[in-house]
Amino acid sequence: MAGLGVSLLVAGLPRLFGDDLAAIVELGRAADAAGIDQLVLPDHLAIGPRTDRYPYGRWPGPDDAPWLEPLTTLAAIAGVTRRIRLGTGVLIAPLRPALLLAKTAATLDVLSRGRLDLGVGTGWQREEFAAAGVPFRGRTARMDDVLRACRALWRDAPASFRSETVSFEAIRCLPRPVQRGGPPLWIGGAATPGNLARLAEFGAGWMPIGLDDDAFRDGLARAREAFAAAGRDPATLGVRATLAPVRGADGRVDVGASLAGLPRLRELGATLASVALPAFVASAAEAPDFLERLARAER
Questions:
Q1: Pairing mode, if any, of strands 272-276 and 238-242?
Q2: DSSP state letter for 235
Q3: Cα–Cα distances in Å, from 49 out to 73, 132, 185, 224?
């Protein structure tokens, strides 16, 4: 992907699609045809009553909004697209058993002919974990175990793995993903010591959230240092940064002024610009024209 790629985040489903959530598949087709580089879906199995605990500012939508399961939805989109990469941002990895996640991700990678990017994070809702029967405490260590176990299952047949939370011996989880070693793993969150260690060990990319320019530059510098210390080429680190909408004097989004911010993201060191579709269009009917404009924008 030369220069700055464009990653389309599709959230806010009722606003975009009303009651016809299946229309997201046609949106994927339109994004593919327009030349968008990546389509990304967020993840929640359920929404609890304490959205005031959302750690990244104000909770962005109504509590009763629907959330499509991302890997299932991306499989449907894979069937009507040919080139666009399909991503999660973020999939709450510790909510899913390692064997199930490995199988589901490998299946999607096969069906999409190697187009899956698996963005992962730990989640923040205690109620969501409790409803799934998964302990909230220790979720970060479980996520690491899950990801390491997935990599073993994607690489080896038979595969064996042993950790405090995941263990198996001489099992085959086939088919393997099309992408050698498995889908690229993108790590969401701040440049904490733990996330830097994950990036260095098995991450292909970093997905920061809500950072100002100085914090972004500092985090990226430390991520590249962690890559280099692990014997990996820092130039191969992917970085997805959010394109913020710019509003005019009337309070409405100025699309032209917003898209003019793309080169700045490239200069900061991003490899992908994350564009949240519902921040720029009021409905799916407006999406095709916006996607064409986004694909043609200077970046």
A1: parallel
A2: G
A3: 25, 15, 30, 38
Give the integer Cα–Cα distance in Å for 11 and 143. Answer: 24
Q: How many CB atoms lie within 10 A of CB 109?
A: 24
Cα angle for residues 151, 90, 43 (degrees, 5° grid): 110
Amino acid residing at 114: G
Which CATH architecture best describes the domain 5-242+257-296?
A: Alpha-Beta Barrel (3.20)
Per residue in 54-105, pLDDT tens? Answer: 998 889 889 999 999 999 999 999 999 999 999 999 999 999 999 999 999 9
Only one residue has tokens 């992408």, namely 179
Q: What are phi and psi of 232, to 5 degrees?
A: -105, 155
For residue 10, give both structure tokens.
């599709």
Of all residues in the chain, what percent are helix, strand and coil, respectively (each to 5)?
A: 45, 15, 40
**pTM given for the model:** 0.95
Summarize pLDDT for 152-209 with one digit per residue, the tens.
999 999 999 999 999 999 999 999 999 999 999 999 999 999 999 999 999 999 999 8
Name the burial class of residue 70, with classes exposed (0-12), middle (13-18) and buried (19+) by CB atoms within 10 angstroms of its CB.
Answer: buried
The structural domains of the chain, with segments of one domain joined by +, span 5-242+257-296
Nearest to 145 by CA among 161, 130, 131: 161
